[in-house]
Specification:
The chain contains 9 helices and 2 strands. By secondary structure, the chain is mainly α.
Length: 215
């Protein structure tokens, strides 16, 4: 089972620097918002960089930095805690596979993809506004990457790990449908983004191996 964590704190920092940086950024941004002395509500989150769309800006492109800053903002402590727990457990194996230099852009792009697809669906469903925060899209991007591996590269995952991927994605979708104030399309969008991004990485890796054997 690749999702069991046995590392010490020091070893975790050493082996997974990208994941450690992402965790720290999420904690620091949450503390900054707390120290502002105002309740963490929609207005506060908007001021600090929440992702936002409106009829005048349906895809959030007038302030594109919000696609990035929203990934590191959270609505409350439980939101932060559960997202960080998912990152701590599920991100390290992917960082090891991709290497840190690819993993960090992957995480960010999956998060951006989640917000973009959420914006697309907000327009498609004729909703006027969207205010969203959190690393959930990026986390579902990690799940999406492992789904790609579980389907197309089964030998890379043991049976227990593959079952965990299917279970966490299935439960996550059901939870996102029935839980209030959860961005279902942000989760689905993140998973799709992660699936496709890892597919590109896998294709590039196979191509490089082919070229090396050809030479």
């Amino acid at each position: 089972m690749i999702f069991l964590r046995y590392e010490s704190f020091r070893s975790y920092l050493k082996f997974y620097p990208g994941t450690s940086i992402i965790i720290c950024l999420n904690i620091i941004s949450f503390i900054i918002v707390l120290l502002a002395g105002t309740p963490i509500n929609g207005e506060t989150l908007f001021r600090y960089g929440a992702f936002f769309t409106s009829p005048e800006d349906p895809y959030g492109l007038l302030e594109p930095w919000r696609y990035l800053t929203a990934i590191f903002l959270h609505a409350n402590f439980s939101h932060l805690f559960f997202n960080l727990f998912a990152i701590v457990v599920f991100a390290p194996p992917l960082e090891r596979l991709l290497k840190t230099v690819r993993y960090i852009p992957f995480f960010i792009l999956a998060g951006i993809g989640g917000y973009f697809i959420s914006a697309l669906m907000t327009v498609a469903l004729n909703k006027e506004y969207l205010l969203a925060v959190g690393a959930s899209g990026a986390i579902y991007g990690i799940y999406g990457a492992f789904l790609f591996i579980a389907i197309f590269r089964k030998a890379m995952l043991d049976i227990a790990s593959r079952k965990t991927v299917y279970m966490i994605l299935g439960f996550g979708v059901v939870f996102s449908v029935f839980a209030s104030r959860v961005d279902l399309w942000g989760h689905i969008g993140g998973a799709i983004s992660g699936f496709l991004l890892y597919g590109l990485f896998d294709r590039s890796k196979v191509w490089k191996q082919y070229k090396s054997t050809e030479n």
